[in-house]
Amino acid sequence: MNTAYKAYSCEFFPPKTDKGAEKLRTTLTELAKLKPAYFSVTFGAGGSTQEGTFDTVKEIQAKGYNAAPHLSCIGGNRDSIRELLNSYIEIGVKRIVALRGDMPSGMREMGDFRYANELVEFIRVETGDHFHIEVAAYPEIHPQAPSAKKDLENFVRKAKAGANAAITQYFYNPDAYYRFVDDCQKLDVDIPIIPGIMPITNHSNLKRFSDMCGAEIPRWIAKRLEGFADDRESIAAFGEEVVTELCNNLLDNGAPGLHFYTMNQTRPTKTLWQNLGLESD
Ligand code: FAD
Known about the structure:
By secondary structure, the protein is an alpha/beta fold. It has one domain (7-276): TIM Barrel. 47% of the residues lie in helices and 14% in strands. It is built from 10 helices and 9 strands. The chain has helices at 18-32, 50-62, 78-90, 116-127, 148-160, 174-186, 203-213, 219-228, 232-252, 267-276, and strands at 7-12, 38-41, 67-72, 95-99, 132-137, 165-168, 193-194, 196-197, 257-261. A 9-stranded parallel β-sheet has the order 7-6-5-4-3-2-1-9-8. The protein is globular. The structure holds flavin-adenine dinucleotide (FAD). The site of flavin-adenine dinucleotide has 26 residues, from β3, β4, α4 and α5.
């Protein structure tokens, strides 16, 4: 892996209310002071937040920062994705996070793409090298994968289709990440694999997300969080300490940057960033 490359980035979700939009503007202003390489914006498969993604990306770009829309292909078709890619090119977007996404419940039509590697291929055919393409990686294995080996092979497919880099699902066990990176290198995949970092601020939300996306909360962390019950200050202080240590461990061992799942909040990401003394290349 090219360890000279370091990218520190932040992820937002598109706000659903005016109050949420105001909050995100404040968060953007605050986090922009840290000079992240880009702000990515999530995308709801099947239509739920797709316009919200475009509007949020447009606003970030208009303020002079780099935005990277997430684009999930499940349920989509070639024409609509081509149109969206062109709209992003028109507003100066240079990065994209290319995903399969998950079928929303009740939705039956698969659309023109089955897996993210097909989307990466399509973006390359349609737009050449215009976009820096990031894809998702799962050091603790994607929940639907039949085996770790198959999941790795499927990840390699995305890199070979033209992805420039990857962002991982969040994890609290760095060994899973190191093994994943080693396995990729053995298969001659040397794109930067950037750890996705989820700050710990709330036990029940973290547990719910982790159950959904297959991320493991180590037992000792879960037990401590349980012990804090509703004491938010103690959870935040413990979370800050654990996640700062995780990030330091990753960076000391060559991780090519960090991607923060901000949940549209300023404080957790800002605190970690400052604890780590980060600067992008
Ligand atoms: P894929 O890489 O297509 O993999 C999906 C599954 O299919 C895996 O089990 C894989 O092993 C298997 N597979 C892959 N390719 C093949 C193939 N060619 N043949 C057979 N099997 C295959 N979701 C959203 O809806 N919106 C977002 O904005 C969003 N952002 C995300 C950002 C990051 C950094 C991450 C890590 C995840 C994000 N997700 C998002 C969640 C993601 O959409 C889900 O995890 C989804 O289930 C898989 O998407 P993928 O792009 O990893 O899919």
